[in-house]
TrEMBL record:
InterPro entries: AurF/CmlI (IPR025859), RNR-like (IPR012348). Signal peptide: none annotated. Coiled coil: none annotated. The keyword Cytoplasm does not apply. It comes from Nonomuraea coxensis DSM 45129. Gene3D superfamilies: Ribonucleotide Reductase, subunit A. This is p-aminobenzoate N-oxygenase AurF. Keywords: Membrane, Transmembrane, Transmembrane helix. The chain crosses the membrane at residues 158-181, 240-258.
């Protein structure tokens, strides 16, 4: 059994990879790391340990500070078991949407790998990542199953539209890896914030998050280095098109990953005015969405994908902030 990381895994460091040799070295390092340190959900998570049992009334499920509903008077006035159940529903929905996103991601990665030539270092790494994402999907679904809640994940219309995502690599691999970062960065951002707060966490949730953060650090690093290597060599018109698409994809993906699930709102009869106050008109909630794509936004600025025109799109999507000095 491999223990989950005892501390929050550091993010991978970006490297200059405009040269093929440097880029190849990064990919080979990430592949080696996938061999040296990885987890399997049914070997490395003690699902049947009594301390890991999922009790919907456990107060450790109450909403963390990163979810602004947790501080609203309506939520605080609910009985403790209801507050816990709302928090558990929120966690389970995030995991269900996560496994649905990773299902799309795996299919897209395999479409990308299908056309790679012999000897390509990306081929091995993509298969490492696909296997790890498969493990994530299994542990997320097992968690959802153990809650006993009727969790659906993405709304059905959105789920149907999302089925085109695995086809993106057939059109543009660069656009696909922007999509990848649009799903992975917001979840990584939130999970790191949750683990850094001072609240006690349920051990099953904490174990899953620590494993996910540790392996996603490599997945995010691959996507970032792929873009760092490829985007500077794209023709100008394709860079412009990618610059237009990036804020649209990132703005939509951040909201999918962080928005409150409609089924939860209906199930617990959360009043519309409370939802509006907490998630729609709340500057803190808007800032959370903006911050969740901060690293990808900075990468787009660095790669020259942000200009006077595309900056307006970032602002229109509510995800623009001036780059740090």
């Amino acid at each position: 059994m491999t223990r989950a990381p005892s501390s929050i895994t550091a993010r991978e460091t970006d490297e200059q990879v405009t040269g093929r040799t440097a880029y190849r070295a990064v990919i080979e390092r990430l592949s080696k790391a996938s061999v040296d340190k990885h987890w399997e959900p049914y070997r490395d998570i003690p699902w049947d340990d009594p301390g890991y049992r999922v009790d919907p009334a456990d107060p450790r499920w109450e909403l963390p500070g990163v979810d602004k509903l947790g501080g609203h008077p309506w939520y605080l006035a609910r009985p403790p078991e209801t507050r816990a159940a709302i928090g558990l529903w929120r966690v389970a929905t995030a995991m269900k949407i996560g496994l649905q996103f990773e299902n799309l991601l795996k299919r897209g990665l395999l479409n990308y790998a299908y056309r790679l030539p012999n000897g390509s270092p990306e081929f091995r790494y993509v298969y490492h990542e696909t296997i790890e994402e498969g493990h994530h999907g299994m542990m997320f679904q097992e968690f959802v199953n153990r809650t006993g809640m009727p969790i659906r994940g993405m709304p059905r219309p959105l789920s149907l539209v999302a089925q085109v995502a695995p086809l993106i690599p057939l059109i543009s691999t660069e656009l696909f890896f922007v999509f990848v970062l649009g799903g992975e960065d917001p979840i990584d951002h939130v999970q790191r914030k949750v683990l850094k707060d001072d609240r006690p966490h349920h051990p099953l949730e904490e174990t899953i998050m620590r494993i996910h953060i540790a392996e996603e650090a490599r997945h995010i690093s691959f996507a970032r280095h792929y873009l760092r290597n490829r985007v500077p060599r794209m023709p100008a018109y394709r860079r412009f098109m990618l610059g237009v698409a990036a804020p649209l994809i990132l703005g939509v993906m951040a909201r999918i990953m962080l928005a409150p699930p409609g089924a939860m709102i209906r199930h617990f009869r959360i009043p519309p005015n409370v939802v509006a106050e907490v998630y729609l008109r709340n500057p803190e909630a808007r800032r959370e969405i903006r911050d969740s794509v901060g690293r990808t936004r900075e990468l787009c600025v660095e790669l020259g994908l942000v200009n006077r025109f595309t900056r307006r799109l970032w602002r229109a999507m509510g995800i623009w902030a001036e780059p740090r000095a």
